[in-house]
Design goal:
Length: 161
């Protein structure tokens, strides 16, 4: 069993370069179910905000690179003179904004004249912060996933204070 602060993997982990299928697989594992394609339409989600349902189309999941970019946007670590890691920045807003930018395919917002509000970094920057957090949480799947991304850094800060 492999246990990380945010993940537990039970069973055998196959580490090798073989392309042989595992014998206990009972149904096909389709590429589209486990990988992200830029052409994939995504899935529709609903977020309640200010008494209204906000429907968005988002990627079904983020890639490892997208999640790492979000973490890099929210947390910076430097090494001190002894080579120990030191957190130099923690910014939950930057993390959530990066998740929204990576995950949203389309949104429903319109201007007073009825024209669509373009999905741009500039518009995400001025979005209601609570709504952005709700969208980021929905993209990640649940609040626990989002909180786990910060837990190791928060625990390190407690130890240092």
């Amino acid at each position: 069993m492999v246990v990380l602060p945010y993940l537990t993997i039970e069973g055998n982990i196959h580490m090798g370069s073989t392309q042989e299928p595992l014998e206990d697989t009972q149904e096909p594992l389709l590429f589209e179910d486990y990988f992200n394609s830029p052409e994939a339409p995504g899935v529709e989600i609903e977020v309640m905000h200010k008494g209204k349902v906000v429907r968005l189309r988002v990627k079904k999941s983020l890639t490892l690179d997208e999640m790492q970019q979000a973490t890099d946007a929210g947390v910076a670590i430097a090494l001190d003179k002894e080579g120990n890691p030191t957190i130099t920045k923690m910014n939950q807003g930057a993390y959530s904004k990066a998740i929204v930018l990576a995950g949203v395919r389309s949104w429903p917002f319109t201007n007073p004249d009825g024209s669509p509000v373009p999905f741009t970094k500039a518009n995400v920057n001025i979005m209601d912060g609570v709504l952005a957090e709700k969208i980021a949480t929905a993209i990640l799947g649940n609040r626990a996933v989002q909180q786990q991304a910060i837990v190791p850094f928060a625990e390190k800060l407690k130890e240092d204070s």
